[in-house]
Structures
1.
Amino acid sequence: MAKISFVIPCYRSENTIRTVVDEIRATIAEHNRLVSCGAFAGQQDDYEIVLVNDCSPDGVWNVIKQLSAEDTSIKGICLAKNFGQHSALMAGYAAISGDYVISLDDDGQTPASESYKLIDKLNEGYDVVYGFYRHRSQHLFRRFGSWTNKKMAEAIIGQPKTLNTTSFFVMRKFIVDEIVHYPHPFPYISGLVFRATKNLGNVEVEHRNRLEGESGYTIRGLINLWINGFT
């Protein structure tokens, strides 16, 4: 049996985060049902979901509190100001207790139902596995930004050219333990991952349309993110 921790930064997602959480729970339940019918009965996985409110201006914190009251496997963290996605992930990582840690988005674009694709790939011997998308449901400037970020990471922090990084990925706990030791402001998660291990993998997953709304990243926000990664 393994314990899986899901960490989700939440911003303007009061109408979507419950759907994402329900998909995670359904995925774990279906996996455990299949396992219980097979040769490894009794080896069901446990889970926890860590939801980090990145000082969202909507009512997502109220939804998080409701979810955590309904399910003791859900933890809520409320940041006092908007620190950004990477800092919100760091706050979530500090609260996990699972053997595997999966990061994903709050808008439904990252397919929680395919979490075991990442875990199965990880169990081939990797330390970190990123989902990658052959087709992205993003605006042109976001696709250009992802390409620019990839080239920057290859040149500056040693990202393998064959590796595609996304916001949907799984790590072994010892990698998370290493990441949260980073003592400085403005963390850049991919850089911290590459500093901790070179044993990295990819697996193709679906990239969906977001359930509602637009990306929380403005062009200015994306530029600031790239500068932060560069520096």
2.
Amino acid sequence: MPIGNTPNAARAIAADMLNVLDPRSDEAALFTFDKNLIELQDFTRDFEPIRVRLDDLESYGTTSLYDAIAGTARRIAKFARHRRAILVLTDGGDTSSVLTPAEVSAPASSIDVPVYVLALDGADLSNRVPLAALARWTGGDFLPAEDRIQALAAVRKIA
């Protein structure tokens, strides 16, 4: 059964990721974006506030996906942790980024932050190639999450 490309799909996958993290050693934060990157929850080992903030996810406005990934990488750079990554849940659309995928991958790679892109059901095929390249350039991966089985497999692989 398709998982969809709605905020509900992103909420479910994000909750699944939180469920496999270890609060004794892992931290997580929650960001969303339109034209700007918006921090909904700062980095924490207490995942409950993130679970609560997942309800605030909405699809709206313009989409600056690549700019948001770059901004998130810059925020993560200050954390000298052994395991750090960016998990992007997207339909692949980008309508207003200033940066290109190649320009985003350079800073993420230089600070050793892999980007994992989970393509939700309905992701535009034309957007998959640059997103897959961006993920690979950073040491991450591009994973389909078009149904519940793929989404859970992707979360396990990333974790």
3.
Amino acid sequence: KEVLNLEHISIEEGELLAVIGPNGAGKSSLLMALSTLLSVSRGTILFRGKPIRRQDQLAYRRQISMVLQDALLLDTTVRENIGTGMRFRGRKESEIKKSVKYWSSQLKIEKLLKRKSRQLSGGEAQRVSLARALAADPKILFLDEPFSALDAPSRSRLITDFQNLQSENKVTTLLVTHDLDEALLLGDRVAVIIAGRV
């Protein structure tokens, strides 16, 4: 079954591209393909103008971060969770400590740093997921409906906070959502995918 048939799609450096469409349109498949977690049957994915070859995939994945609809946290403290991506990338502890402090402040979770992940609310857990993704200093941030599982007040607060930090930090981002208001609010550009086509 052909899931996606895209002639061309691009994300400019520092931009947030919001991708919307109905369920089953191919939005998440696009995100998984661009993150090289799903193989494409034809076509080319370029990163900074160069094709991502099979032997380049690990190096490429070390330059991206992903946040999914449900927070996937380790059963440890918030502090440890935020620093995880940086540890995988071999960063120094002093650098990790500085980055954890910065991003926990940006996402307003400094008071949660000693708390275990299983003690967090849904909104808090998603803030930790975003902090962990951003602390790794990704060249591209992939977001797959990161706000959709939250209750309305938590969702509204997190979207506002994310919008503020995005305007300040300009992280190149691909946001997949089915919410048009969210796409228009956060996106520098919006791509609509219907039946696998933009």
